[in-house]
Amino acid sequence: MYMAYGWPQVIPLEQGSCPSSQRIVYLKVINRLLLVVLPSHIELWSSSQHRVRLGKYKRDADSVKREGENLQAAWSPDAKLIAVLTSSFFLHIFKIQFIEKKIQVGGKQPSGLFLATITRVLNEQVPFAEKDLTLSNIICDSKHMLLGLSNGSLYSISWKGEFCGAFELDPFPCDSSEVIASSNFMGNGVASGEEPSGDFASNHRNSRKSAIIQLELCIPMRLLVVLYSDGYLVLCSVSKKGLKQLESIKAEKSLGSGDAVCTSIASDQQILAVGTSRGVVELYDLAESASLIRTVSLSDWGYTMDDTGSVNCIAWTPDNAAFAVGWKLRGLTVWSVSGCRLMSTIRQIGLGSVSSPVVKPSQDCKYEPLMGGTSLMQWDEYGYRLYASEEGCLERILAFSFGKCCLSRGVSGTTYVRQVIYGEDRLLVVQSEDTDELKMLHLNLPVSYISQNWPVQHVAASKDGMYLAVAGLHGLILYDIRVKKWRVFGDITQEQKIQCKGLLWLGKIVVVCNYIDSSNTYELLFYPRYHLDQSSLLCRKPLLAKPLVMDVYQDYILVTYHPFDVHIFHVKLFGELTPSSTPDLQLSTVRELSIMTAKSHPAAMRFIPDQIPRDGAPENHISSPELLVGEPARCLILRTNGELSLLDLDDGRERELTDSVELFWVTCGQSEEKTNLIDDVSWLDYGHRGMQVWYPSPGVDPFKQEDFLQLDPELEFDREVYPLGLLPNAGVVVGVSQRMSFSASTEFPCFEPTPQAQTILHCLLRHLLQRDKSEEAVQLAQLSAEKPHFSHCMEWLLFTVFDAEISRRNINKNQNSVSKHSTNVSLLEKTCDLIRNFPEYVDVVVSVARKTDGRHWSHLFSAAGRSTELFEDCFQRRWYRTAACYILVIAKLEGPAVSQYCALRLLQATLDESLYELAGELVRFLMRSGREYEQASTDSDKPQSPRFLGYLLFGSTYKRPSLDKSTSLKEQSAHIASVKNILENHASYLMSGKELSKLVAFVKGTQFDLVEYLQRERYGSARLENFASGLELIGQKLQMGTLQSRLDAEFLLAHMCSVKFKEWIVVLATLLRRSEVLFDLFRHDARLWKAYGMTLQSHPSFAEYQDLLDVLEEKLSSVASSEDQ
Q1: Sheet of 565-574: strands edge to edge?
Q2: Which range in 176-180, 814-818, 1013-1017 is most confidently predicted, on average pLDDT?
C-alpha cells in the first residue's frame, strides 16, 4: 500500500535551445540516479536523500539542426551507458563517469554524492533511416537494445553500437489466436468496462503491417509485449540469452480489444496492465492464459474520458503492490492491485454532485498538479517517490513523496495493534487512543541515524504496539512510544556491520535477519530491547539461505527458504531479561518441511494458534494465556499472486481458501486482554472483494470453508479507504484515505493521509447470534457499550439482519414456500433481544424503521415490540425526539387516531420543555393528518375523539373556540382545534410570565399566528398593568446586552406595531432605544408623551434612558416650533 504525503517537490530543469517537441523524452531511475533526457540535452540527478544535479550534457544548436532533436532514449541496466535516437535517425551513445569531486550539502553529515561527466562516445546514423518511419520506445538488457518500427519490424542494436539488423515478427500466433476471457472476471474495480474481443485475428485487424508503438520487456518472465498502433498486443517469449537472438522471439498470444495505447508488466504478480484510449486500465493475469482480472478507471468518481483523456502511461511500484496511471489530458492516480484508489491529483467533487467534474480554468484549478496531463512517470527503486512530468512542460519534474504500509509480508513482522506508514525518513503513526478521532502523527527519525542509513527499509511493531523497530541501510533503532525516545547503537561500527533484511519481535526481544556481505550468508540476531550492543546479543543463529518469509508466535519462529522449505525453531530463554542479569537464549529446530508445489512463492506466512473452545469458562481462557502455549499446527500462506491457503504443519497438506487477497491479519490468540472484541475471529483478509471475516467453524472440520468464511455486505470493498490494521479492544478496522489541503501560499496542495475507523462489531455479534451464542453476544456487546460507535453498530446489526430477513421472505413468497408458523426463534428476534439489553434500543429500532420501506414495518415491530409501547417508553424517559420518530410508525401500524393522540401528548410535553423546533414538526404532522383524517372519516363520532382528548388533557379552564361548522373556516376541524388550543394555551402561559424570548422561539418554531392572538388577548394575558412595572419586568426578562435578545425584541416590536398595541410598542421601543418609533407615537399624543417623560424621570432605575428623553424632547420641540410658524 502506498499513500502520498506532503507537498510535491519540484526538480527544475535547464532550458535548452527552442525545441519543436514540448515534451520530456525519457525518465528513468537506476542505482539512486535519475536520468532525464530532453529534446536537446541530458541531465543526471541524484535520487537519494538529497536531490542534486550531478551532471549534464548539452547539445549545441548546430548538432540539433543537423541531426535532429532527441526522440527516444534508453539507459543500460548498469547505469553506465545512455543511448539516444534523434529525429533524423542518428544514434548517440553517452558514457557516464563519476569524478572524485564530492558534493557538500547542508548539515554536518557527508552526502556521499559525486559529480558526474557525460561524454558522447558514438554518433552514427542508423541504417534503417527512412523519411516517414516512426519509432517505438527502446527497450534493453545488459547487451542489446530493441526498438519497434512503423513497418511492424523489430530492430536490434548492441550497446557497442553494432546494428544487428531487423526482424519481422509474425503478430499472429499459430497456436493461439484468441484471448481467453476470464471466467471469474471481476468488474467491481472502478469501472467494469467491456471484456476484450475474443478473436484477435478477425476483421478488427485488416493490416498485417501495423506500426509498433511500444515495447515492454520483462526479463524474469522472459516476456516481450509488443503493442501495435491498431490497439492490439502480442505477447512474445524471449530466450534465456535475452535480446541477443532475435530469431528466438516467438509470438505466443495475442490480446486486446483494439483500443490499447500503453502497457506495463508487474513481474512479481505476473499481471499485465493495459491502458486504453477509453481512459480505462485493464489488468490481465499472465499466469492464467492472460485472462482479464478487472478494470479500473475514474468513472465512478464522476470523471469520463472527456475529462482525463486516454491513458498515457502506467508505472508499477518496485514491489508490484500498486501502479500509477497518468492520463493524457489531466492528472495521475495510484491504485492498489485490488482496485483501491490510493492517491489522485485530480480534485474530488463528491460522488453525489450534479455539477460537471470538469474544472473550468479559474483561480481554483491552478493548484492542481499535472493539470495539463501526465507524459512520463517513474518510481524510484524504493517506491518512496514518484517522478512525473507534465504534458507540454520542459521546465520541471514533480516528485511526489509516498509512504508504505507495514504489510504482513516477507521477513518483517508487524502487528495489527499499531498502524504505521513509513516514508523514506519518517514514520506516520496512527494515534488510536481515542477511536472516535484518529490522528496521524509524523515521527521523524534521528538525523544522526537516517543521514547515514537512508532510507527506511523495515519497520516492525511489538505485540503491544508500544515499541517500534526501524532499520535503514545499516543497523537499527528502537522507538519507545510511551516515553517518546529513540534507542540507537552506541558503537557506530557495530551498527554498520548490520544489513537488516527483516525484523521480528519475540516478546521483549528484537530479532534481526542480518545479511553478511563477506560470506554472502544470512543470520538471525537476537537483541534485548533495553540495550542495542554486541555485548548484550542474546544469540546468533546462522540461516541456510536467504529467507523468503518469517513469522513468530509465542516462543516459536518460522523461517521459509526458497523454493518452499519451512523450518520452525523453538526459543528457550534462561535467566531474566534485565540489564543486571546475563540471560542466555537457545534455539532448537522442532520441525522441518520441504513442500513440492508448482504454485507461486509465499509472500507471507503466519502461525494459526489452536483456538480453545470457550463454552466452559470464557473468562478463564482470556485471563490465562499460558493455556495457549503450544506449538502451532497450522499456518496461513499468502502467495505473491494473492492466493490465501491454510497449511497443516503436521502432514504438509495445503488447503486453498480464497484468492485476490492483498493482506491478512491473524486475530485468534493474539491478545491477552479481557477487552479483546475479536477473539472469536480466526483471521481477516482484505482484497478485491473487500474485508472477509473468517470464524472458527463449529463443525467436525474446523476449517471447512462453507462454515468458516462469512462475507459481510457492510464490509464491502471501499475504493478509497485502505485498511492498515485492527484495534481489537474497539472492534474496528483502521484504514487510511487521501485528503488534499489547499493553501494560497503554495502552488500545489498538501497530500494528507487521513485515518478512518470502520467497526466490525456488528459482524461479530451477528456471527454469534447465528450460532445461538446469545450470552456471549451480550458479553461482547457490553465490552464496547461505552464506545462512541456503539449505537451505530447496533443500528447496522439490526438493519442488516432485517434487510436479509426481508429478502428471504420475498424469495420464499415468490417460491410459495413461506411457512406460516416457525418454531425456531428467528435471527431478527434474537437481534432485538440482544439490543433490548441496552438503553439505545428504542432509538436503534426507530432508526432502522426510518431506513426501510413502511410496508415491512409490521414484520420489524412484531419482533421488536409494539410501536405504542416503545413510544411510551421513550415518553416516560423524556426522550422526546426519539418518541417523535415513532409517530409515523404508529400512524402506519395503529391508525391515525392513535398517532394523533400520541402526537398531542408529545406536543404538550415538548412545549413544556421548550423544544419548539420539535413542537413545530408535531404541529405540521397534526395539521396534515387532521385534515386527511377529517376527509377520510365518515363516522360522525370519530372526529370528536381528539376534541374530547384535548378536553381531558388540558382541563375545563381551557378557552376553546366554538367548533361549530358555522364558525370561521380556520376552525373547521376538531383535530386542528385541539392543536390550536394547546398552542394558544402555551402562548398565554408565556405571555403571562413575560417569557418573551421563549415566546419568539415558540412562534418561529411552530408558525403560531401571533398577530391574531394579540388582537384577541389585548385585554387578556397580553395586557400590561402599567408602563413602569412593564418596562422594568420586560427589561429583566430581555437582557438587551445580548444580540439575540435585541433580535427577539425587534421581532416582537414588529408584531406589536402591526396590531397597534401601544403599551407594548412604548416598552419595546424604549428598551431598543428606537426614538423614531416613539417619536411617531408621541407627536400626535402629547398626553402620552407627558406621562412617559414623568414616569422615566420619577424612577431612579430609569436614569439610563435620560439621553433617549433628551433626543425625543429635541425632536418634538422642533416639530412643535415648525407647526407654530
Answers
A1: 547-553, 556-561, 565-574, 584-594
A2: 1013-1017
Grid coordinates of 382: 524504493
Rounding to the nearest 10 degrees, give the CA dihedral for residues 924, 925, 930, 935.
Answer: 100
Task: Grade residue 1075 by pLDDT with cuts at 50, 70 and 90.
Answer: confident
Handedness of CA 287, 594, 407, 416 (dihedral sign): positive
CA distances from 315 to 242, 263, 678, 706 (A): 22, 9, 38, 39
Q: What H or E segment, with its residue span, contains residue 650? A: none
- 416-447 in b/e burial notation, b at 16+ Cβ within 10 A? bbbbbbbbbbbbbbbebeebeebebeebebee
Closest by alpha carbon to 916, among 970, 990, 1015?
990
Query: Among candidates 78, 113, 48, which has minimal Cα distance to 473?
Result: 48
Contact 10, 396 (CB under 8 A): yes
CA pair distance 543, 545, nearest whole angstrom: 6
State the DSSP H helix or E strand holding residue 270, giving kind and residue range, or none if neither: none
> What single letter denotes the amino acid at residue 1073?
R
Question: What is the spatial distance between Cα 916 and Cα 918, in angstroms, rounded to a whole number?
Answer: 5
d(CA 261, CA 213): 8
Q: What is the pLDDT of residues 293-331, one digit of tens each?
A: 999 999 888 898 899 999 999 999 999 999 999 999 999
Q: Single out the residue of 82, 105, 106 nearest to residue 94, CA to CA.
A: 82
CA distances 698 to 368, 616, 630, 646, 704, Å, are 54, 15, 22, 18, 10
Residues 292 and 185: their CA atoms lie apart, in Å, by 6
User: Which stretches within 399-464 are classed as H helix?
Assistant: 447-453
pLDDT score of 623: 31
Give residue for cell 481467453. Answer: 180
**Cell 516478546, residue located:** 507
**DSSP 3-state of 839:** coil
Centre a 10 Å sphere on the Cβ of residue 1078 and count the other Cβ atoms it contains.
24
Closest-CA residue to 545 (of 513, 529, 522, 524): 522
Q: How many whole angstroms separate alpha carbon 401 and alpha carbon 386? A: 7
Residue range 50-96, pLDDT digits in tens = 899 999 999 998 999 999 999 999 999 999 999 999 999 999 999 99
d(CA 606, CA 420): 19
Cβ proximity of 640 and 601 under 8 Å: yes
In angstroms, the CA 791 to CA 134 distance is 65
Distance between CA atoms of residues 743 and 678, nearest Å: 42
- For residues 385-403, one letter each, b for 16 or more C-beta atoms within 10 angstroms of the residue's C-beta and e for the rest, the string is bbbbbbbebbeebbbbbbb
Q: Which three cell numbers stand for residue 971?
A: 376552525
Asked whether 538 and 528 are in contact (CB, 8 A), the reply is yes
DSSP helix, strand, coil percent of the chain (3-state; round to 5): 30, 30, 40
Three cell numbers, residue 187: 468488474
The 3-state DSSP class for residue 472 equals coil
CB 196 within 8 A of CB 179: yes
- 636, 608 in Cβ contact below 8 A? yes
- Please give, one letter per residue, the 3-state secondary structure of 872-932: HHHHHCCCHHHHHHHHHHHHHHCCHHHHHHHHHHHHHHHHHCCCHHHHHHHHHHHHHHHHH
